[in-house]
Amino acid sequence: MNRLPVTVLSGFLGAGKSTLLNHVLRNRENLRVAVIVNDMSEINIDGSEVQRDVSLNRAEEKLVEMSNGCICCTLREDLLEEVSRLANDGRFDYLLIESTGISEPLPVAETFTFRDESGQSLADIARLDAMVTVVDGLNFLQDYQAAESLESRGETLGEEDERSITDLLIEQVEFADVILISKVDLISSSERLELMAILKRLNSQAEILPMVMGAVPLGKILDTGRFDFERAAQAPGWLKELRGEHVPETEEYGIASTAYRARRPFHPQRFFDFINQPWTNGKLLRSKGFFWLASKHQDAGSWSQAGGLMRHGFAGRWWRFVPKAQWPQDEESTQVIMRSWLAQTGDCRQELVFIGQNIDFARLTADLDGCLLTDEEMAIGVEGWKQMSDPFGDWYGEVA
To answer: Each residue of 197-210: pLDDT tens digit?
Structure first.
């Protein structure tokens, strides 16, 4: 009951996290607040802004600056130590964590569930209350569609960080309890409503609120009781569609979703040609799932697209081709496998979810059906399938 409540602020560079943080601290209604500000630069610019704009009562409140790393990875141990210290201090009503603009919220949340070798966990002394993502109302859709790398903006976690801006934005939006749209005074009313509708489709569980200069009611982001790790991890709109929990269409903006399922393999060349041609069927916002290629009939392909970025590759072996002795031994996992099982094809299947604006789903279904093997191609069997032209290349080599 006395665990320290924590709100984590996420959002891409320039979205307005620091402005929001300063607004909260200026209007904190006598709450004793501790703040952790994470910035990638050696000089913690965001921390300096908070100190300049807000006078913290040093006897009761504390600002902790964490630099030269991101709390979702390189500074996770430091975050564990800092939150533990602040929680054990017992003199704070609330903790606000502003993560760096290139931080993903999921690993930050996982830090609260981690138990060390002695069995200690932050969850014993601190309560993750809300994951709040600030979305730049002026630039979000442009950044989302651009498929540029973080490196192109001069912001990475190091040489091996190959993430795109789109990757980051979708992670921040999908794993949020509350989404705040900043700079709404700089866009039209229709643009704001359309952006809110798109965000609602990407994350139907989150509360979405517009704001100007960080002004938002404190009760919407502090002590909300909204965070639930299991629910948050299952929240994305594409996953709800895949589970059959269809989200109603937002007809005014043409936003809708569908799940494509089939029990025949794709012809590798036809499917490759389909995904590499220019997209002319409305605006595809998000798609994700698994696919089955005839030329790699034992392997599941993974598919993930957000905005202008699309990835595909090896996901693993279909359970149909895994010896039963190597299957999970617990009943729950076995039931999950068998829910997708058919006598003829086992768990091999096409299962793709598409979310977009003004998409003709009948046309999309027909296009995908055209990629499936014909009756004649099915008849030639596995050995014939292996001889088909396969531009997808060596999945194993790419993974290695």
So the answer is: 889 988 888 999 99
Supply angle C-alpha 254, 257, 260, rounded to 5: 140
Q: Which of 28, 33, 16, 301 is nearest to 136 (CA)?
A: 16
Q: How far is residue 273's CA from residue 361's CA, in Å, rounded to a whole number? A: 19
Tokens of 203: 């994350």
Instruction: Return the SS3 of 57.
Output: coil
Token output for 24: 């909260």
Helix (H) or strand (E) holding 6: strand 4-10
Provide the 10 A C-beta neighbour count for residue 205: 17
- Amino acid of residue 14: G
Residues 365-387 as b/e (b if ≥16 CB within 10 A, e otherwise) read: eeebeebbbeeebeeeeeeebee
DSSP state of 348: -
Which residues neighbour 299 within 8 Å (Cβ) at sequence distance 6 or greater?
Answer: 293, 314, 315, 316, 317, 318, 395
Name the helix (H) or strand (E) containing 178.
strand 178-182
pLDDT, tens digit, 9 for 90 and up, residues 120-148: 787 888 899 999 999 999 888 887 777 67
Yes or no: say if 93 and 30 are a contact pair by the CB < 8 Å rule: no
Phi, psi of 167 (to 5 degrees): -55, -50
